[in-house]
Structures are given as structure tokens and as C-alpha cells.
Amino acid sequence: MSDPRLDELAETARNRGLKLVRSRVRTPGKRGFGKVGLTDKAGKSIFGMDSKGPVASPDDVEDFLRNLGAKDWGASLDVAVLPRKLPKPKRQAANDSDPGPRRTPPRPSTPPPEPKLKIRDAKPSDAPRLAELIRELGHEINEKQVRKNLEALKKSGETPLVATLDKQVVGLCGVGRRVVIHRPAPLGRITALVVAGSAQGHGIGRILVEAAEDWMRKKGCKLVEVTSNDRRAAAHAFYLHLGYERSSIRFFKKL
Q: What residue spans define the domains of the chain?
């Protein structure tokens, strides 16, 4: 039996050039039951998909599509849409009746300047704000530990990058370089990426990733890798859109 809500999501996805993929699992309680995901027309994963099929809930897909509707997918996952141009006012005919004395229209108020975005190396004084951003990623850390980590990373030449708007830190991107036995060139790595919720919608995540890639090229890296939690479907779509490919499964063990 057709699900009206999923049919509506499928139609919304089509309107955005995407395809809604529904799980074929029909047994409640089994992995994948009731899950959905999004692909492009060529079948490439965009949101809520892994190697076994859909992993996102209908609510997650609905939120993703709603946010996508207000953004320019062709440019970035988080670039605001420009306002439409207003029509020009019609000119008054020359033989119209005398409109009386002309009034000088009031001067439009000057809009405040847009905040300036800057990418720079993180500094010890950024520690309080960086601790807040890292906690948004789900990692509990205090300001003291962030300062200690920054000191160690500076010594190794791997100082994280930060994005600022009018000197306020709004984004963080951790970078790394390492030599591995099985590759002919150093391996670059994005160790963390986060943009404050209040600053999203301006392409800051994409700009941070591009700055990290430039850093790695200068360090001689020929490949960049990044890991992302299985639950972060929106992050997966973000990296796929920037040209990254899913290549492996990550395992870890606490020591």
C-alpha cells in the first residue's frame, strides 16, 4: 500500500532534481525498516544512503529537502539565494496633468556593511570559542585542553584553520599531514569541521574545506581524507557534493 507521506517526499525530491529511495525491508525491527534516502538522477548518493541502502528517517529527509529548497545546490550546500529584482516603475506620460510641485523622495537608509569573512590559523586566545564549537560536534572538551592541543599542533606544524566574521570565530577546520608506508606522497586529513549554527548559510564550510585543501597541497599531499560519523547524513551529502568519494569503513578501539 502506498504511503501518502513518502509519495509527497518523492514528489518534492523530483522537483529538486533528486530521487527518493525507499527501503525494501518490510519487517518491523529489522535494520533499514522505514528508512529512506536521496540520490541524484544518476543514482549517486546525496543524503541518507550507505552501501546497504537508505539509512535516514522520513523526518530527516523532509528537513534536508526543506533546507535545500532555500539554497543554491549548484554553487554550494550552504549559499543563500539572491532576492528577485523588482520591476522598474513606469514613466509618467508627457501630456499628463500637472502633478504639482515635485517632492524630493527621502534618501534610502544605507544598509549596514556585510560582515567580512576571513580564514586564519587558530590562536590560543580562540580556545574558549573553539571549545564551544567542538562540543557542537559532540566531543566534550574544556578550554584548558583546547589550549594544550593547539600548542602541540603548532609544534607539529598542523595548526587548525578558523573562519571569522568581523573577528568572531564561527568555524573550525582541523588539518593534518602524515607520511604512510603505502603511499608515495604525504596523506592530508581533515580532522574536524564545524560551522556555528548562527553562521550557516554563507558557504563557510565549503570555504574552510578549500582552504584546508590548499594547505595540504603546499605540504606536498596528493590525497585528502576525512571521516564522518554514520549518523551525520547531511555531512556525507556535503562532502559528496564537494567531490569526495566514499571509499572505506572506519574501525576504532579505545585504549
A: 4-68, 117-241
Considering the entire predicted model, what is its pTM?
0.59
CATH architecture of 117-241: 3-Layer(aba) Sandwich (3.40)
Q: C-alpha grid cell for residue 252?
A: 576504532
Under 8 Å CB-to-CB from 169, ≥6 apart: which residues?
A: 126, 129, 130, 133, 162, 163
How would you write the pLDDT of the chain (255 residues) with one tens digit per residue?
568 888 888 888 887 778 889 988 888 878 888 888 888 888 888 888 887 888 888 888 888 877 664 443 333 333 333 333 444 545 555 555 555 566 666 776 667 667 789 999 999 999 999 999 999 888 999 999 999 999 999 999 999 999 999 889 999 999 999 999 999 999 999 999 999 988 888 899 999 999 999 999 999 999 999 988 877 888 888 888 888 988 878 888 889
Residues facing residue 189 across a β-bridge: 176, 225
